[in-house]
Amino acid sequence: MDTPHVLAIPYPAQGHVIPLLELAQCLVQHGFEVTFVNSELNHRRVMNALPDKDNVRNHVNLVWIPDGLELWEDRNDLGKLTESASEVMPGKLEELIEKINGSDNNKITCVIADGCQGWAMEVAEKMRIRLAVFYPAAAALWALGFSIPELIADGIIDSYGTPVKSQMIQLSPAMPSMNTENFPWMCFQDENTKNILFDLNTRTLKAVKFADRLICNSSYELEPAAFSLFPNFLAIGPLLASNRLGKSIGHFWPEDSTCLEWLDQHPAQSVIYVAFGSFTVFDQIQFQELAIGLEQTNRPFLWVVRPDIIEKTNDAYPRGFKERVVTRGRMVGWAPQDKVLSHPSVACFLSHCGWNSTIEGVSNGIPFLCWPYFGDQFFNQTYICDVWKVGLWFNKDESGIIRHEEIKGKVEQLLADEALKARALHLKEVTAETVKEGGCSSNNFSSFIRWMKE
Ligand SMILES: O=c1ccn([C@@H]2O[C@H](COP(=O)(O)OP(=O)(O)O[C@H]3O[C@H](CO)[C@@H](O)[C@H](O)[C@H]3O)[C@@H](O)[C@H]2O)c(=O)[nH]1
After folding, report:
1. CA–CA separation, 47 vs 380, rounded Å?
2. 102 Cα–ligand 1 center, Å
3. What is the pLDDT of residues 334-353, one digit of tens each?
4. In angstroms, rounded to a whole number, what is the distance separating the alpha carbons of residues 221 and 430?
5. Is the pTM of this model over 0.95?
6. CB of residue 10 inside a 6 A radius of ligand 1
7. Helix or strand holding residue 146 (H, E)
8. Residues ≥6 apart with Cβ < 8 Å to 183
9. Fewer CB in 10 Å around end: N or C, the chain?
């Protein structure tokens, strides 16, 4: 039999590309050929940031199709990106599959589509190719998406996704409460973007019926209630490069690995690691409050300041800040986060609570300071602070700003909380068990592989 050939297609955003590429690398280890389809811009960024291009090319075929936007256009406008991608990418994907299948290559035997890419699921169905759907966020979030018809029927949201009133709801008695105002599609101020993202959910919900397997980058141990509510979700996570002793790829920015040597110079559990993923942006006031808060902790900190986190990053720091913190503060444009979080000198993780950052922190037993920015991050904060109890959240003042006194205070409170730190270490053990041979996620992954090879 020919090598099974999987085509994997992520939603075109950083937090979706990295985990699906991790899955792709695991599949290659299990003898699959994998073609990974990025949008053109993301392909360029990934290739540019790859430390060892030839080595990866030998393993995963990295290809691209256009997303319909010009290369210079803003991809942080998710409404515009989603609308354009949903219109242009299906036809391009079909052409790509026809081209692969019409050549001497192994034919595509299975499509793995991101849980947000309803249109890719439709293409797989149309072309009669087996389909698995990959969910890169918490299972609870997908459970919310699957519950939309009931939420409408129960009068919790209207048919456009708008909550009828602001309230806390539970999808099942065992699930943590969710604030209707924080439903992921509600985090966009502009009505048009909100509608596009809600429609994306609706389209995906129809198309997901074509899938034979629904796999989640999460575990039963982390989210028992969500998996009980939807038993057809298969937990195979956390998928981390360190589990296969490999390197994570798919980054949009080249990583600054000199910060690892910097970490080497610090005592165990002394450094505050601060990172907000790929999407968070700050205004000047909030950025400066964070800088002063970090300075006032009098502790070493490693802070990821992405080039686009604020307009003109260079002028954004408080006057004299860089000079004052020069001996104990390190700012980088993009860190090798997986390695940073497993470094012994890291004491805590000040995080925006993107799902990847959440499971990476949890897998390393790191306590969190939660600073959610948008979408599912508020719900992930609930898991971290209220369910697993391995982190603290920040209070905002009346103008919606997290002040430096609050930041300093919460750092002190977190690092003095031995019970919380012990829970974080326990959760690390639980998470390590599930991905080990014989663990729940490991067994599910094996059964997924068997199905793919059938
Ligand atoms: O300096 C850095 C910063 C981040 N990362 C990595 O980048 C990824 C970031 O993913 P995530 O933490 O999930 O954040 P976002 O990029 O914001 O991810 C988007 O996608 C996620 C998965 O759907 C959602 O949970 C988030 O809310 C959404 O913003 C992680 O693997 C990090 O390890 C680095 O390697 N270096």
Report:
1. 30
2. 36
3. 999 999 999 999 999 999 99
4. 7
5. yes
6. no
7. helix 139-146
8. 144, 157, 161, 163
9. N
